């Protein structure tokens, strides 16, 4: 079992890269403290690509930001749980150590390539400064490294483009540059927060190819945050599905698509546009993600669930084993027979 | 970048010509006949005619302006109506004092304003922010000349730390030069510092929520670099804009401050020549001021190109 | 208030704007302070303990005493009374300068924004030229040509400030002018004056109010600076700037004569500024909502 071992005090096996256990994050709102992450647990192994899936508001981005300690505070605060990077607890380490880890051991790629690069500095400078910061390298070595990684991510004429400003790059090239920046210190883990959402479909698949080959060549683990199960199917080894600040299901990609064990996952799968089918009808899950200050009692997905019973709302539902290497958080786990993707 | 400067110059020069025309036209506002003034007491009609000829007043107005402009371009603004001192040399002699005062005041304003504004903008709503915001409101409202007087009272009379009046050229020692200028420069700097602080606060608070600041944090850069490099360069544009406006106002303030602190600068020259209605001198001072301000505006425009790379290509 | 609104249905923006302004506590306090300063100054003949020129020679340069709450000046004149009378002059002078700026800037701004074209371009360059100079310096130059005195100084200031109002009015006019309903109104032949009065003026009013409030503060400061130099209000008429100039000569013996007029100016400009900021905030939310 890879996920949901909340009381394990230290990091696990040799190949385990990152383990989040029972992470709780609250946000101050006008309604008081709202629980945004209600005990999230997941882990990533070396060279593994894990998809973190959910609608907006499910807490997937906050989970990603938490790993690097980037949840804005105020209003956010971590109120419990651990994030183990090997045997270091990132929720405990001091800020200077966290800044050594960021961009070096763990780096992050954001959703908006248009606004995530600083318009006032050249692309090369923004890559090279990361390298210089973590490798104590000279300006020249920094630029050299920038050219290398830009070349690696497939920017043509990297040696000249290194001196270009972000506005001289297209959206796809900017995202490549962001990936280059994330790669420049050979991190063990890359957190990619919806890196392809803002891009058009052709560029999107190029970026996915790029991430795949990065994993193959460098062996970087990737936490791929997305709301798009299609992308997950293409790219990931394992999937973690989040809803309302909780992990509701986790499984190897193939198993999840074939046989979802949580009604929410089933809903997501049926909402996927079917490739090749002409009469593709887009089902969507009725209702909205609950606001963090108004979480339903018991199962958080209850109000939107087709299989909802009164008993579902009585007490919080635990994440339970649901077969080999998989878990689900459903009170009716044993009785339900859910439909996978066809 | 050179193209940007060239294009800005193309805008500035016609403006300067219009400005010079306005300056020359002021003569037309003078009641009475300048020739009568020049001709001395109880002039004969012949003396007046001679004076008129000498002043070139027989030509049409636009021709008179042309002559004046041609001379002005060669730095010949005529001579004082009162002591016949060439206007250009009078201004040149007084320029160092005014430039010293202006540059020092602008430096104080930038350092104070950017520091206070950044501290406030990084923590909107904190006590630092509230103190800075309140101080800025007061700083904008207090009359700079009054601040000058109070500074003299506090730091020259009640606690004699600095001289109350006078000016010493920088060649006579940087310390004495600075000690004479510190009070007047601070008086001039308060209001611009307050305006710059407000603008910096707003810009920094705004920029800190930008995605690229989060990117910089995610790269593991130290806080000082995240703020000092990534945030401030982007926050600079609106700040530079108000800097240009405030520099303009500050230069106006030198007239009063030089008078209060007995600094022999262009501002004092402006005052004495306005008081004695010495129009050639007034015109020379105005033109000097306009050139100085257009130069600052040019620098501000060109700095946009540095702070925002997109401007360079337009 | 509400009866009033029914008669002017075309200006709901302005009313909402003023209502927003009323919720701004700082600006409201500033408005009350300003009203107090104005009332006290205007009722100087009734309230002032002494007349303007009454001298009390034995008590020259006295500090605060029961007879002279804020002391006396070098001629033994009562400072409190003179501050109150000076307030009249300073406020009136600032008001005059701004009134002149309005008379010049607003119609020209409407014209330039409404007509556009060469006229707009010419007026715009004229404004550029005037705004090249620091206000005080240009006002001084005009005074050099026309001679010192309160009226000349304030006309000069009004001229110098007019481009600021011109620009605000012009750009507000231009943006309303390009609204579809105004274009339509013009195309069916509604007279220009009627369009300006009904459609454009109400929309120009809010940004104009902001600018006027801030300009009153600037004019008060500029008047004080000019009077301090002896180019504005000339003695024996007192103005706050003039009192400051005279007080400065006594700074070593009676610093109170410097403190008081300065504080009077600062409180008044601060009030104008805070009111202006409050108006701007009210306006800011308004425009953002419209976007």
From TrEMBL, chain A:
GO terms for molecular function: ATP binding; ATP hydrolysis activity. PROSITE patterns: ABC_TRANSPORTER_1 (PS00211), ABC_TRANSPORTER_2 (PS50893). Keywords: ATP-binding, Cell membrane, Membrane, Nucleotide-binding, Transport. InterPro entries: AAA+_ATPase, ABC_Ni/Peptide_Import, ABC_transporter-like_ATP-bd, ABC_transporter-like_CS, Oligopep_ABC_C, P-loop_NTPase. Residues 18-269 form the ABC transporter domain. It is a peripheral membrane protein. The keyword Protein biosynthesis does not apply. One of its GO terms (cellular component) is plasma membrane. GO terms for biological process: peptide transport. The keyword Nucleotide-binding applies. It comes from the Bacteria. It is found in: Cell membrane. Its main location: membrane. Belongs to the ABC transporter superfamily. This is Peptide/nickel transport system ATP-binding protein. It comes from Tamaricihabitans halophyticus.
From TrEMBL, chain B:
One of its GO terms (biological process) is transmembrane transport. SUPFAM superfamilies: MetI-like. Residues 95-304 form the ABC transmembrane type-1 domain. It is a multi-pass membrane protein. The chain crosses the membrane at residues 9-30, 99-122, 134-157, 177-197, 285-307. It comes from the Bacteria. It is found in: Cell membrane. One of its GO terms (cellular component) is plasma membrane. Keywords: Cell membrane, Membrane, Transmembrane, Transmembrane helix, Transport. The keyword Transmembrane helix applies. Belongs to the binding-protein-dependent transport system permease family. This is Peptide/nickel transport system permease protein.
Automatic annotation (TrEMBL), chain C:
It is a multi-pass membrane protein. Keywords: Cell membrane, Membrane, Transmembrane, Transmembrane helix, Transport. The chain crosses the membrane at residues 26-48, 91-114, 135-161, 208-234, 254-275. One of its GO terms (biological process) is transmembrane transport. Its main location: membrane. It is found in: Cell membrane. Residues 87-276 form the ABC transmembrane type-1 domain. InterPro entries: BP-dependent_transpt_permease, MetI-like, MetI-like_sf, OppC_N. It holds the Pfam family BPD_transp_1. Belongs to the binding-protein-dependent transport system permease family. This is Peptide/nickel transport system permease protein.
């Amino acid at each position: 079992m890879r996920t949901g071992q909340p009381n394990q005090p230290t990091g696990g096996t040799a190949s385990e890269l990152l383990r989040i256990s029972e992470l709780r994050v609250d946000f101050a709102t006008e309604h008081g403290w709202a629980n945004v992450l209600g005990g999230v647990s997941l882990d990533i192994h070396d060279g593994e690509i894990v998809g973190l899936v959910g609608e907006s508001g499910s807490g997937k981005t906050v989970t990603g930001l938490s790993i690097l300690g980037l949840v804005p505070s105020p209003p956010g605060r971590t109120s419990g749980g651990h994030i183990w990077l090997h045997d270091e607890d990132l929720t405990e380490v001091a800020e200077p150590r966290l800044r050594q880890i960021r961009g070096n051991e763990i780096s992050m790629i954001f959703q908006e390539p248009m606004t995530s690069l600083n318009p006032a500095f050249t692309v090369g400078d923004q890559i090279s400064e990361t390298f210089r910061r973590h490798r104590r390298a000279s300006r020249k070595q920094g630029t050299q490294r920038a050219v290398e990684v830009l070349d690696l991510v497939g920017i043509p004429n990297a040696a000249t483009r290194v001196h270009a400003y972000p506005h001289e790059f297209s959206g796809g090239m900017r995202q490549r540059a962001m990936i280059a920046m994330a790669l420049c210190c050979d991190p063990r883990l890359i957190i990619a927060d919806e890196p392809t959402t803002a891009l058009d479909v052709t560029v999107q698949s190029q970026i996915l190819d790029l991430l795949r080959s990065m994993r193959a060549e460098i062996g970087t683990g990737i936490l791929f945050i997305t709301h798009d199960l299609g992308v997950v199917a293409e790219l990931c080894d394992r999937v973690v599905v989040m809803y309302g600040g909780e992990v509701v299901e986790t499984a190897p990609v193939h198993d999840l698509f074939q046989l979802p064990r949580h009604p929410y996952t089933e809903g997501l799968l049926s909402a996927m546009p079917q490739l090749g089918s002409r009469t593709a009808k887009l089902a969507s899950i009725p209702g909205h993600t609950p606001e963090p200050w108004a979480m339903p009692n018991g199962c958080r997905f209850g109000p939107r669930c087709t299989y909802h019973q009164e008993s579902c709302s009585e007490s919080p539902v635990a994440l339970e084993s649901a077969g080999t290497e998989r878990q689900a958080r459903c009170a009716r786990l044993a009785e339900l027979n859910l439909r996978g993707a066809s | 970048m050179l193209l940007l400067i060239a294009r800005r110059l193309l805008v500035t020069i016609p403006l300067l010509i219009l400005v010079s025309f306005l300056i020359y036209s002021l003569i037309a506002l003078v009641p009475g006949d300048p020739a009568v003034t020049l001709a001395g007491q109880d002039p004969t009609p012949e003396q007046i005619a001679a004076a008129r000829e000498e002043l070139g007043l027989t030509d049409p107005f636009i021709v008179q302006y042309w002559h004046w402009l041609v001379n002005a371009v060669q730095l010949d603004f005529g001579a004082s109506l009162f002591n016949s001192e060439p206007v250009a040399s009078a201004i040149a002699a007084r320029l160092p004092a005014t430039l010293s005062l202006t540059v020092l005041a602008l430096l104080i304003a930038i350092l104070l304003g950017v520091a206070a504004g950044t501290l406030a903008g990084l923590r909107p709503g904190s006590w630092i922010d509230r103190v800075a915001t309140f101080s800025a409101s007061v700083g904008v409202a207090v009359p700079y000349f009054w601040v000058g007087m109070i500074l003299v009272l506090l730091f020259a009379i009640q606690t004699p730390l600095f001289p109350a009046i006078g000016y010493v050229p920088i060649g006579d020692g940087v310390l004495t030069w600075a000690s004479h200028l510190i009070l007047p420069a601070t008086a001039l700097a308060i209001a611009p510092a307050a305006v710059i602080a407000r603008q910096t606060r707003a810009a920094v608070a705004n920029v800190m929520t930008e995605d690229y600041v989060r990117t910089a944090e995610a790269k593991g850069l130290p806080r000082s670099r995240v703020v000092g490099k990534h945030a401030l360069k982007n926050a600079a544009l609106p700040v530079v804009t108000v800097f240009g406006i405030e520099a303009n106002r500050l230069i106006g303030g030198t007239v009063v401050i030089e008078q209060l602190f007995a600094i022999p600068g262009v501002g004092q020259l402006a005052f004495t020549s306005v008081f004695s209605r010495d129009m050639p001198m007034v015109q020379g001072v105005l033109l000097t001021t306009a050139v100085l301000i257009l130069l600052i505006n040019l620098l501000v425009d060109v700095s946009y190109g540095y702070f925002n790379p997109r401007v360079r290509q337009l | 208030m509400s009866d009033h609104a029914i008669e002017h249905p075309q200006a709901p923006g302005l009313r909402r704007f003023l209502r927003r302004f009323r919720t701004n506590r700082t600006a409201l306090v500033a408005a009350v302070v300003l009203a107090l300063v104005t009332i006290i100054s205007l009722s100087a003949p009734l309230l002032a303990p002494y007349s303007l020129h009454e001298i009390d020679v034995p008590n020259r340069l006295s500090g605060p005493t029961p007879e002279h709450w804020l002391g006396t000046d070098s001629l033994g004149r009562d400072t409190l009374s003179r501050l109150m009378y000076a307030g009249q002059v300073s406020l009136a002078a600032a008001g005059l300068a701004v009134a002149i700026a309005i008379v010049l800037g607003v119609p020209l701004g409407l014209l330039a924004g409404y007509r556009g074209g060469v006229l707009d371009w010419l007026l715009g360059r004229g404004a550029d030229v005037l705004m090249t100079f620091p206000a005080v310096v240009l006002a001084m130059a005009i005074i050099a040509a026309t001679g010192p005195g309160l009226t000349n100084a304030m006309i000069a200031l009004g001229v110098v400030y007019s481009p600021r109002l011109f620009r605000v009015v012009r750009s507000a006019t231009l943006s309303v002018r390009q609204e579809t309903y105004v274009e339509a109104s013009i195309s069916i032949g509604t007279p220009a004056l009627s369009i300006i009065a009904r459609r454009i003026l109400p929309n120009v009013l809010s940004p104009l109010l902001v600018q006027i409030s801030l300009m009153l503060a600037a004019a008060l400061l500029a008047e004080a600076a000019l009077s301090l130099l002896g180019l504005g209000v000339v003695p024996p008429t007192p103005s706050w700037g003039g009192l400051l100039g005279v007080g400065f000569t006594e700074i070593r013996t009676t610093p109170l004569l410097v403190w008081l007029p300065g504080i009077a100016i600062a409180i008044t400009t601060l009030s104008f500024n805070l009111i202006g900021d409050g108006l701007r905030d009210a306006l800011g939310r308004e425009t953002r909502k419209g976007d």
